[in-house]
Design goal:
- By secondary structure, this protein is of the alpha+beta class.
- It folds into 3 domains: about 200 residues, 2-Layer Sandwich (Heat Shock Protein 90); about 160 residues, Ribosomal Protein S5, domain 2 (2-Layer Sandwich), CATH 3.30.230.10; about 160 residues, Rossmann fold.
- Helices cover about 35% and strands about 20% of the residues.
- A hairpin with a 5-residue loop joins strand 1 and strand 2.
- Helix 9 runs parallel beside helix 10.
- The longest helix has about 35 residues.
Length: about 650
């Protein structure tokens, strides 16, 4: 005990000013990149493009930029060029450096803090964007076109390789940032074209009158797209609902209030799902915030007031709930304000309390006027919401039955669940297995300590075309919800999830793919926190078993078969077994190929782009046949491994 005290005393006396590490300039960014861009995975990589594009969008919102070009180059680098004013190149008195070098090397420096010639409205709240991209790039070249000259400066890992130089003459104006992400920082430095494309389309909708072009030069035939939307977010709602049946016109408003610019577009559809996107200064506020709160409050109040005024709701009837009036709603809310208060560097939630009142008043007034001037639309909207209310009450009764049943059955629920012995969710995983045959093999082949098996009989209900009350009447879905332990609807509590991994394990054929899609649709629509928490996985069973003598090789992907055959001394004598179902494997084979954590192959299910996911689920699982047919025809030639 005394020796321990002595060691502690020595440690305390050795802790001095010399132990304090001071990271100067951009060293802090390279040391802790996650603090500035959220993560160093693929999401963080793309954040580099968003930061530079946001600067160009700021120029566009200020009225100085009409064109933005984004190019993913053949070598994997990226450049963003605009025709804005061009970053100034004269010296900043406070730093003694050029304005360009200051913006690219000093955190919290830029045109977004002061008065005068900066920005009234800006998405780049913290002023760290350009400098962070610079710090996390092996090479960054900044080119500025202004005053009839072309200025250029090169950086390596954030360090300038010389002063700003005049390298030519040009009547162009604007800024071009060309950067190469640092592979030692990011898990991957390969930009995903679709991710970039969707983000830029979104920005074009949000910034009326700006043309955004994207080119991907990494393939032999470069892919090029151009976006320009005069209709703004009204066009955005139209795009979101292109495969849905609208039951009202698109309601649109744009108003310059004292608190800032407010723009709202909405339309009701015949679907059962809500799709709402919110933005503040063109930043996608994924967690909503005050502007969303104000919108929802006004929506609920206005519909109930209209229903009372015109006798759709009788005196003794309850008001429609906020949940009722949002069924089938597609909406985009965009606000632009001078001093946005976001939560965190990733800007996922708007905290300006004044925007709640502003949006509530402006939208409430406009939506009330719309309903009075469009009585047929107003009636259709109310009838849609009233039907949702009746379904909600039925769903609540069904949900309570499911929860009550789960509570009564306790840890033995449901009957066909082969649970694991571990009661620690972090060490437990649940396999959702197709059919009794595969379920039997899985139960025998699993590790009983941490692996639970729930066989599902047949194809579950397509929840894309059903409300919750109908969904909860399905025996297989009820069994799954009880097994998960988190409840459903407004009483869902993801902290009560009984398994850290929920694994969909179906046959490697068309029926298996269909069942997998039905399950993923259910998780996406009704159990979304399981996906968002990183708990949903898809097991990849092997497609082939290759055998020659005592050597056995399993192949999981079609394009790996030939390479695997070449590992055998005589490929022509290799026996090839094509697995069509999990039931074809004995318990030992199922363990060593699909269940064993040391050898199995699994995919984590992510929903990084909710808009795209919603569109795909609506297209493939919705009631409309034509969009599904068109989707299949458009992608038929690109399909690989249809049986997987």
């Amino acid at each position: 005990m005394n020796a321990q005290k002595k060691n502690d005393t020595q440690a305390a006396s050795n802790y001095s000013a010399e132990n304090i590490q001071v990271l100067e300039g951009l060293q802090a960014v390279r040391k802790r990149p996650g603090m500035y861009i959220g993560t160093t995975d693929v999401s963080g990589l793309h954040h580099l493009i968003w930061e530079i594009v946001d600067n160009s969008i700021d120029e566009a919102m200020a009225g100085f930029c009409k064109n933005i070009d984004v190019i993913i180059h053949k070598d994997g680098s990226c450049s963003v060029e605009d025709d804005g004013r061009g970053i100034p190149v004269d010296k900043v008195a406070k730093t003694g450096k050029s304005a360009l070098e200051t913006v690219l090397t000093v955190l919290h420096a830029g045109g977004k803090f002061g008065e005068g010639g900066g920005y009234k409205v800006s998405g780049g709240l913290h002023g760290v964007g350009s400098s962070v991209v610079n710090a996390l790039s092996t090479v960054l070249v900044a080119t500025v076109y202004r005053d009839g000259k072309v200025y250029e400066q090169t950086y390596k890992k954030g360090d300038p390789q010389g002063e700003v130089e005049v390298v030519g003459k040009s009547e162009k104006r604007g800024t071009k940032i060309h950067f190469t992400p640092d592979a030692s920082i990011f898990e991957s430095v390969v930009f995903d074209f679709t991710t970039v494309l969707n983000r830029l389309r979104q920005q074009a909708y949000l910034t009326k009158g700006v043309t955004i072009r994207i080119s991907d030069e990494r393939e032999e035939s470069p892919r090029r797209y151009q976006f320009y939307f005069e209709g703004g977010i009204k066009s955005y709602v139209q795009h979101l609902n292109k495969n849905k049946e609208g039951i009202s016109e698109i309601v649109y408003l744009e108003k310059d209030a004292p608190e800032g610019m407010i723009e709202v577009a909405l339309q009701y559809t015949s679907t059962f799902n809500e799709l709402v996107f919110t933005f503040a200064n063109n930043i996608h506020t994924t967690e909503g915030g005050m502007h969303l709160t104000g919108f929802r409050s006004a929506l609920t109040r206005t519909i109930n007031a209209y229903a009372r005024q015109f006798g759709f709701l009788k005196e003794k009837e309850d008001n429609l709930s906020a949940e009722d009036v949002r069924e089938g709603l597609t909406a985009v809310i965009s606000v632009k304000l001078g001093n946005p208060q976001f939560e965190g560097q990733t800007k996922s939630k708007l905290g300006n309390a004044e925007m709640r009142t502003a949006v509530e008043n402006v939208f409430g007034e406009t939506f009330t006027q719309y309903m009075e001037e469009h009585p047929q639309d107003a009636k259709a909207i109310f009838m849609k919401c009233a039907l949702a209310a009746r379904a909600r009450l039925a769903a609540r009764a069904a949900r309570d039955t499911v929860i009550r049943k789960g509570a009564l059955e306790g840890m033995t629920l449901p009957g066909k669940l082969a649970d694991c012995t571990s009661r620690d969710p972090k060490n437990s995983e649940l396999y959702l297995v197709e059919g009794d045959s595969a379920g039997g093999s899985a139960k025998q082949g699993r590790n009983r300590e941490f692996q639970a098996i729930l066989p599902l009989k047949g194809k579950i209900l397509n929840v894309e075309q059903a409300r919750m009350d109908k969904m909860l009447a399905n025996n297989e879905i009820r069994a799954l919800i009880i097994a998960l332990g988190i409840g459903i609807g407004d009483v869902m509590d993801i902290t009560k999830l009984r398994y850290d991994r929920v694994v969909i394990m179906t046959d490697a054929d068309v029926d298996g793919a269909h069942i997998r899609t039905l399950l993923m649709t259910m998780f996406y629509r009704y159990l979304r926190p399981v996906i968002d928490g990183g708990h949903l996985f898809i097991a990849q069973p092997p497609l082939y078993k290759l055998t020659a003598g005592k050597k056995v090789e399993y192949v999981y992907l079609e394009d790996k078969k030939e390479a695997a055959l070449k590992t055998f001394p005589d490929p022509s004598k290799v026996g090839i077994q094509r697995y069509k179902g999990l039931g074809e494997m004995n318990p030992e084979q199922l363990w060593e190929t699909t269940l064993d954590p040391a050898r199995r192959m699994m995919y984590k299910v992510n929903v990084d782009d909710a808009e795209d996911a919603d569109r795909v689920f609506e297209t493939l699982m919705g009631a409309e046949v034509l969009p599904r047919k068109k989707f299949i025809q458009s992608h038929a030639k690109k399909v690989k491994n249809l049986d997987i």
